[in-house]
Design goal:
Strand order of the largest sheet: 9-8-7-6-10
Number of strands: 10
Mean pLDDT: 86
Oligomer: single chain
Structural class: alpha+beta
Radius of gyration: 23 Å
Low-confidence stretches: 352-357
Helix content: 40-55%
Length: 373
């Protein structure tokens, strides 16, 4: 499965994930072949890109959980849009707590792992879908950390509201490339983040714990604008640590405007490695909530081999049993003697082993005799 930007789509490519319209109705099923009209539709929707199956790749199986997760994402965008639009217009969001309760009921009480299925995003709905996924992740993490209902509700509400500053940025500036921004544009963008911080700081109707979580997170996330040095001197707040991890994981794995999304494995490795930034217990709670290196995942290893995960790594998710495609050997990456030479690098980037021919380079040698020196 590959992420392909909208401008790079070609007729005949097969969809790896379904496409829904703004009403949550499925327009294109998985394995649908793109037509010229389909590509035009995708661009008209404003989608940043779509996930495409490789030519020989079978359609990956989807569980009932996967289907329901995608459906919930599709239908919930309208609720979160209404909430954030009310906030940005200075109005009280009427359905905020009802919506947060829906998320907790759906994903904040699970006793099993689920596949975290990333959604397709456009310029128009990027903030809404990011806030939604951050809230879902926060609900799952807080449950794994045995937070009581009041604290869980507070962190989910904060997650829904945390990116209001981005939503306040004028649409003409919000997703402009960095090298296209002038100094005045940057000042306008920064003023929106400061305005959101001040709005939540002065909102006396907002629950004190939610308000504290939001303002502390904003101080962390916009250190240069909102007194990040003060944040560093404050004691750790569990809700803020959950929001930091949920925010970072979704941000890294979602489709972006200027760079490729990273895999769940790459995101988890970074969260685990940056122990001075991300709380270890919170990261572990995330790992216990979603499938990452479960049996059936194809991986690349640091020695250049590719293989299939056959047993999940316990307690370290990055140390599974892997069946190597090269020599048909099983490697226990939890064995310190094995892990000295072999670790998980990432998921397999491609299942297509054919060599890609550089036709421009090939033309330079047409009609010539090539000798080895």
């Amino acid at each position: 499965m590959l992420f392909v930007k909208a401008d790079d789509l070609k007729k005949g490519m097969r969809l790896a994930k379904p496409i829904y319209n703004k009403n949550g109705v499925m327009l294109y099923e998985r394995d649908s072949k793109l037509t010229s009209q389909g590509i035009i539709s995708i661009k008209n929707f404003g989608l940043l890109g779509v996930y495409i199956l490789e030519p020989a790749e079978p359609v990956p199986p989807m569980t009932e959980d996967d289907i329901e997760f995608e459906r919930f994402q599709a239908v919930s965008v309208f609720s979160i849009k209404e909430i954030l639009d009310d906030i940005c217009n200075g109005e009280e969001p009427k359905n905020l707590y009802r919506f947060a309760n829906q998320i907790i009921k759906k994903y904040g009480l699970l006793h099993r792992k689920i596949n975290f299925v990333q959604n397709l995003r456009s310029n128009e709905d990027y903030v809404y879908k990011h806030s939604l996924n951050t809230a879902i992740l926060s609900a799952m993490i807080s449950h794994r950390m045995d937070m009581d209902f009041k604290k869980q509700l507070d962190v989910v509400v904060a997650s829904v509201l945390h990116d209001a500053g981005t939503q306040m940025i004028p649409a003409s500036l919000r997703y402009r490339k960095n090298d296209e921004l002038k100094e005045d544009d940057i000042n306008k963008i920064n003023s929106c983040y400061v305005a959101a911080y001040q709005m939540f700081s002065n909102d006396y109707s907002l629950d004190a714990d939610i308000k504290r979580t939001l303002t502390m997170f904003m101080r962390y996330n916009h250190k240069e604008l909102i007194g990040g040095d003060v944040f560093e001197s404050l004691p750790k707040n569990q809700s803020v640590e959950i929001l930091k991890v949920a925010y970072a994981f979704d941000n890294m794995t979602a489709m972006k405007f200027e760079e490729e999304p990273v895999s769940e494995i790459a995101a988890i490795k970074r969260l685990m490695e940056e122990k001075d930034v991300y709380d270890e217990d919170v990261v572990n709670a995330l790992v216990e909530s979603i499938n990452i290196l479960n049996p059936g995942v194809c991986v690349e290893m640091t020695n250049g081999d590719k293989g299939l995960v056959i047993v999940e790594g316990v307690p370290n998710i990055l140390e599974p049993y892997v069946l190597s495609f090269r020599d048909n050997q099983i490697y226990n990456l939890g064995d310190k003697y094995v892990s000295q030479n072999i670790q998980i690098k990432d998921v397999m980037k491609t299942m297509d082993n054919r060599h890609v021919v550089n036709h421009a380079l090939l033309k330079q040698y047409e009609g010539k005799i090539i000798t080895h020196s």
